[in-house]
Structure formats: structure tokens, C-alpha cells
Design brief:
By secondary structure, the protein is of the alpha+beta class. It has 2 domains: about 110 residues, N-terminal domain of MutM-like DNA repair proteins; about 120 residues, Orthogonal Bundle (Helicase, Ruva Protein, domain 3), CATH 1.10.8.50. It has 6 helices and 10 strands; from the N terminus they run αββββββββαααααββ. It has a 4-stranded antiparallel sheet with strand order 1-6-7-5, with helices on one face. About 35% of the residues are buried.
Length: about 240
């Protein structure tokens, strides 16, 4: 599943269409494509893994889900996987195997934009407040909760927990204040590191624990286990990551 930093890159690639009108719209997402024709793309807003294309009087939410992808200008994938294709005078934006939904302005007003860890408006105080309200939640679930850490995915979760030395099954309420603060800072900082490494196509080179078999700190075997509510895979070292 694409994580927040990947979606930031997608926004950057789509930016050339802001201010342009849709010439034609195709795709099998189920939305009324005709409603987008002649609409000007006013803005692109991100909420973690979700992208909002904001037009005149209508907006489109795109979520790449587990296997979604996009292309700019050139179509290389089959039409059957094309959920939405937007043609502008200066090119086209194509979205495949993803969720595409129409949303109205009222929905946009209910989104907590401050929860996006890569946003300039990210509010760590509010994030900490949400964490403290869920003392029994495992930290692996907390980091993957998009209402708390919007944009964080499984790679970021694993790498951050290893860097701060916290076992993924630790309960939020048991974390010392210092570790709680490290979790907040780590999630944001690693997200921007992720973005930097993604730009240069060297993300995997910097993985310390994700998909590793041996801990780089102590040489002990890395544990691979599906844990938490979502049963997402966690990689961790029992020696270097403390269970709180």
C-alpha cells in the first residue's frame, strides 16, 4: 500500500494540472464522469494516503488502496484497470486499481487535516491527545490508525518503532512520556526521510528492520509476526525493542 510520502510525490506530479479544465473524463470507477468535464482543477489536497482533487462545486477522493497506481500523460496499462482518466489540454492523469469517489464540501470540512504527519499543519499536541485517549491500544495499531497518524503505513510503522526502541505490542498508556514524544517525532521525521529516499530510488537501502532477518544492532534474529487489529506484519527485535 502506498504510504504518505508516495502520495506527496503523486501530488507533485499532478500539480501541473491545477488551474486547468478537464477536457474529457473516462474510467470505470462508477462515478458520473460527465460531471467533471469543463470543471477547473482548483486545488489538490492530501490527507495521509488520500488525495482530494478539488474542482468547481465538486471534489474527487482518490485512494490507491493496496495495489493502486497512477500515470501522467502516457497510458501503458489496460483500460480494464483504469478507474479514472482525466484529460486536460496540457496532458492527462490516469488512476488505476484504486478507489474513486465524489465528495462534497461538507465532507471536506469534517476532515482533521492536522492529523497528516507530512502536512505543514500537522499538530503533534492533538496527536498526543488522541494517543492518550487510547491507553490500551497497541502502538502498532496507533501508528497505523489514519485518524491519529494520517499517512503512516507499515514500512514507517516498523522503522519508527525500531528506531525508538519500542516493541510493537506495547500499549500506548504504558509508554513513558519520553518514548511517547519520540514516537511522535519519529513518525514525522521518518516520513520525510522516506520521501527523500523515495525521490532518489534508494528507500530499501535504508531499511533497518523492515523485511530484515538479522537485527543490525545486536545480531539477534528479527521476529516477523502479524499482530494488532489489522494483523499487519511487524518486524522487530525482542532485545532492542522494549515491551511496555
Amino acid at each position: 500500500m502506498p504510504e504518505g510520502p508516495t502520495i506527496v510525490l503523486m501530488k507533485e506530479n499532478l500539480q501541473k494540472f491545477v488551474g486547468e479544465k478537464v477536457v474529457s473524463a473516462v474510467g470505470n470507477s462508477g462515478i458520473d464522469n460527465e460531471l467533471l468535464i469543463n470543471k477547473k482543477l482548483k486545488e489538490i489536497r492530501l490527507y495521509g494516503k488520500q488525495t482530494y482533487l478539488i474542482f468547481d462545486k465538486v471534489s474527487v477522493k482518490i485512494h490507491l488502496l493496496m495495489f493502486g497506481s497512477y500515470e501522467i500523460d502516457e497510458q501503458t496499462k489496460p483500460d480494464k484497470s483504469l478507474r479514472l482518466g482525466l484529460n486536460f489540454k496540457n496532458g492527462k492523469a490516469l488512476f488505476y486499481t484504486c478507489s474513486v469517489k465524489m465528495v462534497d464540501d461538507d465532507i471536506l470540512k469534517t476532515i482533521d487535516w492536522e492529523a497528516d504527519v507530512m502536512s505543514d499543519n500537522w499538530n503533534p499536541k492533538n496527536t498526543k491527545k488522541k494517543l492518550k485517549a487510547e491507553p490500551k491500544m497497541m502502538v502498532c495499531d496507533a501508528l497505523m490508525n489514519q485518524e491519529i497518524f494520517s499517512g503512516v503505513g507499515n514500512i514507517i510503522k516498523n522503522e519508527v518503532l525500531f528506531r525508538v526502541g519500542v516493541h510493537p505490542e506495547s500499549e500506548v498508556g504504558n509508554l513513558p512520556l519520553k518514548k511517547l514524544n519520540e514516537l511522535l517525532t519519529g513518525a514525522r521525521n521518518y516520513s520525510f526521510d522516506f520521501l527523500k529516499w523515495k525521490r532518489t530510488d534508494e528507500l530499501k537501502k535504508h531499511w533497518q528492520i523492515y523485511h530484515k532477518k538479522i537485527c543490525p544492532k545486536c545480531g539477534q534474529t528479527v521476529i516477523k509476526k502479524n499482530i494488532g487489529k489489522g494483523k499487519r506484519t511487524s518486524f522487530y527485535c525482542e532485545k532492542d525493542q522494549k515491551l511496555y
